Amino acid sequence: MAGLRYDEIEAGQRFTSAGRTPTETDHALFMMLVGDWHAIHADEEYARRTAAGRRLMHASLGLSLAMGLQAQAMAFADPMIGAIGLTDWRFRTPMFIGDTVHVEIEILRKRITSDRARYIVERTLRLARHDGVVLQDGTAAVMLRLPPGAGTASLPSDHAPPPGAQR
């Protein structure tokens, strides 16, 4: 998949990942990895007596799947510096073993940092089940290296570029 360059990224763009069906093995491996063996996740008899009526997958596994699926659904061509945050992440409804999920992505905004060497892209991520029910959602931000000369056409006239930069 070819990645998007700075000048190709626009607010409102939407992307959808392929589906993924988390399995019992995924669930068990995640419990081993994080060390959370709460009965709501690990004990079928206990979980049957809860409102959900069955074991829940860890909400943080859903978040992890959302981050992985979004990376497969859209890529950036410019070098990534790193993820810089998640905001307003909500766990809306439980995810169960065998639910097929995908991620819906919408670009909210991009902005150049004050040093004019990097930029930040904020996007909404929605982890949804195959039937369209949103399980989790929130905003994710990533910082990328700004290519030389990119983004200068959108500078306001009162915003001088750093010394040595071309306008």
TrEMBL record:
**Superkingdom of origin:** Bacteria
> Which Pfam family is one of this chain's hits?
MaoC_dehydratas
Q: Which InterPro entries match?
A: HotDog_dom_sf, MaoC-like_dom, MCH/BMMD
Q: Where is the signal peptide?
A: none
Under the heading SUPFAM superfamilies, the entry gives: Thioesterase/thiol ester dehydrase-isomerase
Q: Where is the MaoC-like domain?
A: 16-116
Enumerate the PANTHER family for this protein: BETA-METHYLMALYL-COA DEHYDRATASE, MONOAMINE OXIDASE-RELATED
Full protein name:
MaoC/PaaZ C-terminal domain-containing protein
